[in-house]
Amino acid sequence: MVGTALFFLFAGFAIMCAISMVYHKNPLYSAISLVGVFISLSCIYITLAAPFIAAVQILIYAGAIMVLVVFVIMLLNLDDDSGPNRLKYLYTLGGGLGVVLLAQTFFIFYAVMRASNVPSDQTLSAGKTLTIGQAMYTEYLLPVEIVGILLLMAIIGSVMLARRLAQPQLEIVVERESELRNDEQ
Amino acid sequence: MEPSLASYLALSGILFTIGAVGVIFKRNALGMFMCIELMLNAVNLTFVAFSRYYGDTTGQLFVFMVMSVAAAEAAVGLGIIIAFFRNKQSIDVDEASILKN
Questions:
Q1: Under CATH, what is the fold of the domain B5-94?
Q2: I want to staple A33 with a disulfide (CB 3.0 to 4.6 A). Which of A21, A113, A125, B17 is the partner?
Q3: Burial state string for B7-37 with b = 16 or more CB within 10 A and e = fewer than 16
Q4: Percentage of chain A with pLDDT > 70?
Q5: Do the Cβ atoms of A50 and B15 come within 8 Å?
């Protein structure tokens, strides 16, 4: 009974924060609402017997990613949004997509409701950090390595993107490039 | 008494819907970025719920992978947003129309 009450509490909080995130025009309010979603999802992970994922959710999402987002919001110093002059068909498209996805959600809800499901007994070991670590470094070593390479590429790519190439430097680079091409010919 | 698997899937579906509609409705790039993060989190919730109900660690492992990809996406995406702001002095995605016409 307590589990159900906690689930509905955190689910309601998550949905309210998500709606508030889409509703607010100011990016900073959106970011704070998104942190609320992350924290309530983390609480739901704890009720699902996944303490490692709950901790990582707080550390990576609420800790790292959202700090980065808030840092960018502060860095850009945005003014408030102007009025809506967006193409009208986008609103129709968005509303239609929302209705279709909600219908799909309720279909899945009723389809899964009919199938009887009881939480498995092995779950108490499934969420432990030890089990996840053992699976990560034996069975799923290749995906972990690929994720490592992906993160390295992301670091290099973001540094290259954020680097400001001043105009004289850019000209030098272009000149050298064209000289090299002439030499090759 | 635990909530059923169907309620977790319903919560995840509702969060995903809000995120998907938000991506289309939002005008600034940062808002769209945050809606994409919300959709990734909704998918993570289904992974963890299935992992709990089938007693399998693999679901939680892939949540970890999704989080790593989201971190990489955050780094690159915010870099693109800063580069875009430097050129246009705005992060309104409607301004990104150089390729039009």
A1: Helix Hairpins (1.10.287)
A2: A21
A3: bbbbbbbbbbbbbbbbbbbbbbbbbbbbbbb
A4: 86
A5: no
